[in-house]
C-alpha cells in the first residue's frame, strides 16, 4: 500500500516554476528521503500535500484520500514539522502542547507530552517567545508527534538542533517507524538522509530525477576511482567511456567517477605502472552532485 501518491503534480507561481509534472509513490512503513537544494520544489510539494497551497494541475492523495477534498481527515492522522518553527501565542510550552493535543483528541496525551519533554530536555514552564530557535524546533517536533501519527512529514527537521538532541530525535523516529509510522523526510543535509532513510527521491528543478533505495543507488551508480601513478598521466590517455565528474584529471593522482564496465577500466590499466588503486562506492552527496552536474 502507498501512503502517499502524487500524479502529474504541477504548481506555478505566475511565470515562476514551483514543481512540474511530479510523480511519486511512498510505500507504507518506509523512511523516505526527499532531497534537493533550496528552490528545487521540496517545500512546495509538502505544502500541497498538507493543503496549505493548491496545485495548478495534477493530484495527490494520502491514505487514499484526496489532499484537497479530504485535508481535515488527513491532518488528523498526520504530523508535520515545518522548516521554520513559527509558534504563536505567549503560552508556556506545556500549555501550547496541551492545546495542540486537544486539536487531535489525543488520548493519554499528558504522559506522551511529559515523555517527549524529558527526551528533548525541554522546560515545560518556559514561555514560547523566550525560547531559542533550537528549543522552538523541539516544541514543533513534539507537537507533531503527540498523537502518534500514521505519517510524519518532516521539512528540514534538524535545523537548530544540537548533535545530542539530533541523535535522540533519530532514535525516536526509528522507534516510531518500528511501530508503523511512515516518515517523509525532506532535507538538503545529505549525510542525514544517507544514514537515516531507506529510500530517496532526488529533486531537480521541480521534477524528480530518480527514486531508489539508498543501498541500491550507491551500488549500481557511479564508482569513485583513485589511481596513483609514478609519473604524470591524464584521463584522456586511457580512452575510457563512462567517465563522470572528474576531481583530478591530470597529474600523478587521477580521481574520477566511473559508470562504465569495471572490467574495461581494469583492462585499460593492465600493463600500466601503478603505485596505488582504489575503487569505492561514492557517498550520497557525491551521487547527488552527479545528478546536478
Quick structural gist:
The protein has 10 helices and 14 strands.
In words, what does this structure look like?
The protein has 293 residues and is an alpha/beta fold. The protein has 2 domains: 2-218, P-loop containing nucleotide triphosphate hydrolases (Rossmann fold, 3-Layer(aba) Sandwich); 221-292, Alpha-Beta Plaits. It has 10 helices and 14 strands. A 6-stranded mixed β-sheet has the order 6-7-8-3-9-10, sandwiched between helices. Strand 9 and strand 10 form a beta hairpin. The model has no long low-confidence stretch (mean pLDDT 88).
Describe the global form: elongated
Q: Major β-sheet, in short?
A: 6 strands, mixed
Number of H- or I-type helical stretches:
10
Mean pLDDT: 88
Counting structural domains, the number is 2
Using DSSP, what is the number of strands? 14
Order of helices and strands: EEEHEEHEHHHEHEHEEHEEEHEH
Helix content: 25-40%
The CATH class of the largest domain, by name, is Alpha Beta
CATH topology of the largest domain: Rossmann fold
What is the H level of CATH, i.e. the homologous superfamily of the largest domain?
P-loop containing nucleotide triphosphate hydrolases
Distance between the termini: 34 Å
Features:
293 residues; Rossmann fold; Alpha-Beta Plaits; 2 domains; 4-stranded antiparallel sheet; 10 helices; 33% helix; 33% strand
What is the topology?
Layout: E1 2-13, E2 16-27, E3 31-35, H1 42-49, E4 57-62, E5 65-66, H2 71-75, E6 78-81, H3 93-104, H4 109-119, H5 133-145, E7 151-155, H6 163-178, E8 182-187, H7 190-196, E9 199-204, E10 207-213, H8 214-220, E11 223-234, E12 243-248, E13 250-258, H9 262-269, E14 276-280, H10 284-292
Parallel strand pairs: 3-8, 3-9, 6-7, 7-8
Antiparallel strand pairs: 1-2, 1-4, 4-5, 9-10, 11-13, 11-14, 12-13
